[in-house]
Amino acid sequence: xxxxAALLAVLLLAAAPHAGAxxxxxxxxxxxxxxxxxxxxxxxxxxxxxxxxxLQQVAGTMPHGDLALxxxxxxxxxxxxxxxxxxxxxTEACHWIERVAIEIALVDRKxxxxxxxxPGSCPYDSVLGHERKHQAVDDAVVAEYRPLLVRAxxxxxxxxxxxxxxxxxxxxxxxxxxxxxVETALQSIxxxxxxxxxxxxxxxxxxxxxxxxxxxxx
Length: 218
Description:
47% of the residues lie in helices and 25% in strands. The protein is α/β, with parallel strands linked by helices and 218 residues long. It has one domain. Strands 1, 2, 3, 4 and 5 form a five-stranded mixed β-sheet that branches.
């Protein structure tokens, strides 16, 4: 009777899971990431202090002649950061994208008008009106591409395969793959954005527009 009890105990121990064993890691189904875009595009400052030769130095070669009376300047910058989340158990981890933060900025935004053209005068206003057209182009491009950047990030994340357990030691590589997917998608939109901006800004500076400015105060 004692021998049968001992044998039964051995069988029960063999059938039970090992005390140190862990349940397999289960990756969650991620919700669509939050994609937020902030825009920094304040009104440009106006500099009316430079002589025509000094402004020419700032403006460089003009598209229709080398006599700069005014000049609009702004650097368009787009930055982003992709935030990931993860869950781990034992030697495995799951990684997914939680949110994407995008920043659009028009940096060092300024309108120059040569100091020979004084505020309140027709010659001043005619040049300012032209430079405001360049300002309006940038405002329109930012407004147009803001939702396109959001959709590009959302589509990039939606196209990723569901998270699966991977070695915890490969965490950096997995996160680089995830963030790289978003970066590739956003870089494509930014490249198109800059090309469209350049074409539209160039379209403002036509010979007809310069003739209009020259005749405005005749």
